[in-house]
Amino acid sequence: MAGAVTVAIPVLNGARYLDEVLGAIRGQTVDRELEILIVDSGSSDGSREIAQRHGAHVHDIPRSEFSHGGTRNLLMQLASGDHVAFLAQDATPVHERWLAALLEGFDLADDVAAVFGPHEARPGASHMIASEMDRHFASWGDGREIDVQRLDRSPSGIAAYRRLPGQLTFLSDVNCALDRRAWEQVPYREVPYAEDQLLGRELIEAGYAKVFHPEARVLHSHDYPALDFFRRYFDEFRGLREVLGFRQPLSPARAARDVRGLMGADRRWLRARGVRGTALVRALLTSARHHAIRVAGAIVGTRADRLPAPARRLLSLEGRASFDPYEVPASLLDMDMSSFEPDWQWEFVRRAYPRRPLLLEPGPPRPPGALTAAWLVPVWEIGSGGHMTIFRLVRELELRGHRCSIHLFDPEGKEDRTGAELREEIREHFVAIEAPVFHSLEGFSGADVAIATEWRTAFPLRDLPGCREKVHFVQDDEPQFYPSSAQSLWAEEVYRMGYRCVSYGPWLAEMLRERWGLEARWFDGGTDLETYRFAGEEEREPGLVAVYGRMETGRRAVQLAMAGLGTLFERRPGVRVAAFGTKYGLQAPIPREDLGVRSPQELSALYRRASVGIVLSLTNHSLVGQEMMASGLPVVELQGDNVAQVLGASGDVAELAEPTPDSIADAVGRLLDDRERASAMAARARSFVEERSWTRAGDQLEQALLDFLASPRGSQDGDLAPSSARSAISRP
Amino acid sequence: MSAEPGAGPEERAERAERALEEAMADRARTWAELQRREAALRDAERMRRRLAEIESSAWWRAGLPLRLLQKALRDPPRALYALATRLERLLKR
């Protein structure tokens, strides 16, 4: 048998209902010892005798010692039960299972500190009170289901709590039960009013759970004359301001709306009970007066601090003159949250820990044939080269009979358009894809293969359901985009997630295999040969150098290119520079033409006109270089494995320079001086890019995806660390 | 699968492979159709939310008299009819 239970009631002249209340308590069916405990603060109406007749333990205190919080603490101290149910002296349990229902709430979880039940209006109570009680207690479990409340301490949970604290903090000791161990940690505070609301708030913020049990019902309601109602609401709302900091908005429009809303609720309640016609109109007029008084009481009560003490005493039904705000230490409701961001853009990373395996659902072996692919893409800007590559390859898969969907991942909440609007933009400014576009990952339903196209998208994709295979589409070594930072660590973390990779170019694939032990295939970036048409030497302006000056992208080493051009400019007259690719102003030690961001057609015209092009790549090589090559423009790139693995030795299809200003100036100078050699290299470069069509890139990607699907990996359990033992496929 | 007269094992295997390929293509088409529908539903839900936000804003409510006036000026008989219907409904309540 479980420990004893105590029913505790503070009493002062409660004879009107006390006999009924105690009779109902004695009639309770519970499987444990029941103690009835009364603290009487000087009754003169025979309450004490009624209590003794029902076998209650009665403890007397002087009226001056009574306080709502302090007296209930005393009751807790005197009680012998592990659980103590509190009732008001005029709250009658509706049936014999009331106490059992309260106790059942504690069995739901170990952290339940309090259980409360609904109040029903006593027969004869006004319709406003009855309707309000029904509505109020329907806030939890629709008033019919058990409802467990806990504070969700996630950013969105905290934001919801601050928006609507009462949903979690509400606790009424007219009808509730407390767990002794929880009370020992979080006792009642010695506050003059709303001690139960404060206790509810402190319990919730301390990490305890609270339970609403619809079967723990009591009859309890008060009806007063209009003026007393105002004073009662003054007391209630002063209490809410003192312990919760709640302030009723002082706005006539808002007050009118509130009254209208409450009247509407009363009208529905009355109509549901068959009240019609003039009876309904009369009842609603009473409602209007009552709710206007309520709102007025709320406005004045929550501003009681602005009133002089004698006015407070006059307005208070209990005759209290004080205003004693109570501050819960370090409360989430009181903290300065001006810099709190519930929609923090990196929340998706935080939630991705602790590390866990990639969620895959390989299913039975998949027959060959058309596949379905879901692409997760970050927010784009018109002109984004990375997105152009993604959408081109989406289209290439579609042209091969595969089906795709595109899902935007936008943790910063930048994008407000619908999926259909986004799709139109892709079709107009990038590629005419068929795939539908989803504005978010909400409702993601899976595909044969899901593809993360940027490191951030790999975080949510890891846990998304319904995918046979998950692939990281790697266009560059993204950790290198950042200085040592959280972002560089997180971008690197993606390599530990166990994705199979398809990379742009062999250098990246080799790096993924060798450094991270990943299974990596690659594709060669194609070039739009229709836009970037070949031009021979005769169309070119001698001495004109076109330089890719995208300042926004550090890995393009624009300052190094400018330093090289500065040196070149000093060395020789007749050099003219046209820089392009940046939205921001360039700073460089040379006179030049800054063209900014230009359309592919304008760039093509520039590439056909210039004599030398400069594109520098510190990580993966740029597609801009290939577009210059397609246009017959001799290109200067940086020497290094990242470039040489694709473009070969210096002079094959591009002139490769050491990363110094002098070496860059030398390389440009060589191409300007020896036009015959430059032209021959440009012709080889054109053949090189002709081989690398988007059709070929599409074939390479398709083959990689089909191969991945044909060789499912099975369980990923524990396979989180990079493993050099994983197979390294050395084909594209 | 029942044997077909006159068809050798290779031919039957080829036909089966073609059928399988068609089935896979059909499966992908169905998936794409579902995705399109789902995307449209999500967009509709998003638009509904946006509309509700607009209609609950103070600016929208403040513009109600102007909108009513605009309607009345555009089509006075219809506006009168709508007003009468509304009054009638109110009285019936």
Please describe what this structure looks like.
The complex is a heterodimer of chains A (732) and B (93). In chain A, the strands form 4 sheets. An 8-stranded mixed β-sheet of chain A has the order 3-2-1-4-9-6-10-8, with helices on both faces. A 7-stranded parallel β-sheet of chain A has the order 14-13-12-15-16-17-18, sandwiched between helices. Chain A has a 6-stranded parallel β-sheet with strand order 21-20-19-22-23-24, with helices on both faces. Chain A is 40% helix and 15% strand. Chain A is built from 26 helices and 24 strands. In chain A, helix 5 packs across helix 11 and helix 10 (226-244) packs across helix 12. Chain A has 732 residues and is an alpha/beta fold. Chain B is mainly α and 93 residues long. Helices cover 86% and strands 0% of the residues of chain B. Chain B has 4 helices and no strands. Chain B has helices spanning 9-55, 58-62, 64-74, 76-92. In chain B, helix 3 packs across helix 4 (76-92). Chain B is elongated and about 80 Å long. The model of chain B has no long low-confidence stretch (mean pLDDT 86). The interface between A and B is medium-sized, with 25 and 20 residues.
Keywords:
heterodimer; A: 732 residues; alpha/beta; eight-stranded mixed beta sheet; seven-stranded parallel beta sheet; 26 helices; 24 strands; 40% helix; 15% strand; disordered C terminus; B: 93 residues; mainly alpha; 4 helices
